[in-house]
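Instructor's aside before we start: the two examples that follow are unrelated to each other. I chose them only because their records fit on one page, so don't look for a connection. First example below.
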Amino acid sequence: MVDTKTKQLIKEGKMLPLMEEFYTIQGEGSHTGTASYFIRIGGCDVGCHWCDVKESWNAELHPPTNTDLIVQNAKKYAKTVVITGGEPLMWDMSFLTQRLQEQNLKTHIETSGAYNLTGVWDWICLSPKKNKLPLKEVSDNANELKVIIFNKDDFKFAEAQASKVNSNCQLFLQPEWSNREKMTPMIVDYVMNNPQWKISLQTHKYLNIP
């Protein structure tokens, strides 16, 4: 059981349910190939059936960790820090991003956009999900829209979400890993016919790195 004091610190973002943290190469989207320190926060209720980190869903499985300790670990490695999940915006990200930026670290987030936008971000990657659609505030501020393509219907979903983001937002289509052999050729054809989109691949999986 989490005690009252810890609950308050979590509410303030001074502790977070940390699932894992690791130094690797960003494998997806606009910053593919960039050395990055990933911080994976536990907790998600969006519930994508193809999620490859379902162990992140239950926040109670991941110990509340002092946010300053997370920052101390991050600054030892890359200049770019990626906050992911789970769904990190289930928690207040303001304290974490403040501390990271005080260390001159770039703050990136990968989010479904289903929760209010907290924190100060150098880059917002919005990866919307049908189960729980993104809030307007996140769509308006997204730097990158990354839509996972599992079947043909997802192209319509991608266009619907693209109509909601700002004009400077970069647009990416990414094949869902388990269905990549079927969907990748369709994505190639789609992007060639709709060049406002780009292809994102999970290159870290091809490289066999985290």
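Example two begins here.
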Amino acid sequence: MRTSHVLADSDHWPAMFRALRHRNYRLFFSGQLISLTGTWMQSVAQGWLVLRLSDSPFLLGLVAAANSLPVLLFSLFAGTIADRFPKRRILLITQSTAMALAAILAALTLSGMVQIGHVLILALLLGVVNAFDAPARQAFTVEMVGREDLLNAIALNSSIFNGARTMGPAVAGMVVAWIGEGPAFLFNALSFGAVLASLLLMRLDSQAPAGPRRGGMLQAGLRYIMTEPNVRALLFRAGAVSFFCFVHLPLLPVFARDILHIGAAGLGWLSAASGLGSLVAALILAQLRDDAPRDKLLTAAALLYAPLLIAFTQARNVPLALVLIGLCGWAGVTTMALTNTLIQLIVPDELRGRVMSVFTLMLMGLSPLGGMLAGTIAELTGNVPLVVAGSAVIGWVLVVLVERRAPTGKEHTPAAPSTTGQT
């Protein structure tokens, strides 16, 4: 049931921001912008902390993998939870738990007691939280804005994620360089207050029923994916890009310190440049009309990602590296945001949580595992740029195979809402 509370003057919102005409979504948008800034600050500070404590590319990848392992284990089950229980309630629990974990990491770091083992355990626990948070959050979007503004809301979600990714790392790089990692973790813990407040202030229909018990069957969601070739192709492409082309993300501290020699502040700028490119992509997508050729744009971005990443690994000039990592950010977000959009247009409402849990697995579960594998090989070979470039080549080949085998006529009209709740 849609409970978005559209304002009477909704038509006055520019097309680029039309999802903001919904009061609940405006609350969500503002809360997420603050909270995600803290999240990105912690991400950059944590990477630098691990490198400082261990001097190991392998452990950088291992911490990222620890965060992803629970996503691989629990995200499919979490999708059934998102389809059966109120999504706001799930988000209140997951965001409160993430706040507590960030506070513990801040306390350990500020007290000087933090060890690699602490970081690994907290990353693992945060992965459990993310496994349940991401499917519920993505499926919650349609409840805030309805189907008519879903595409714009997904693009705006990506814009706040990447706007925070632009600001957070730049601030974190300076904070870490000046006073250490602890304050960045503390800010992240405090920032969760904004998203919790936004969720509590929303006006939702208390009579909205939970998902049907039969609709909670995991097998139904997997069966749907296996029998829907367009969704299957979209998910496979996302998995290939995530596993093979996102490997540079956990290894950025190595590029900053050992390849480009720009230190912690430079790591912040690299992450911010990637975020800026991603933000540009999200803002472009927010302006797309309903008749825009989304499949063609998705194909172009997915095919360009690997060549751009290979060029970044070979760059030794800092301004050029910043430009290339920014273009990688554009390609990555364009690929994933359009994949998210097309899947949500195809999937029926009663299967949304389960199908989006598989997308979450592809995006959040596979990416850190690819980073861990790349970090392990890089530690053995001593050549991080070559390992990242080789992984990108494999990802590009798989994307080409998907494009050659994908069904024709991939553009879809929105799936009709289910009236029976059966799967």
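Residues 207-216, 409-423 have pLDDT under 50 and may be disordered.
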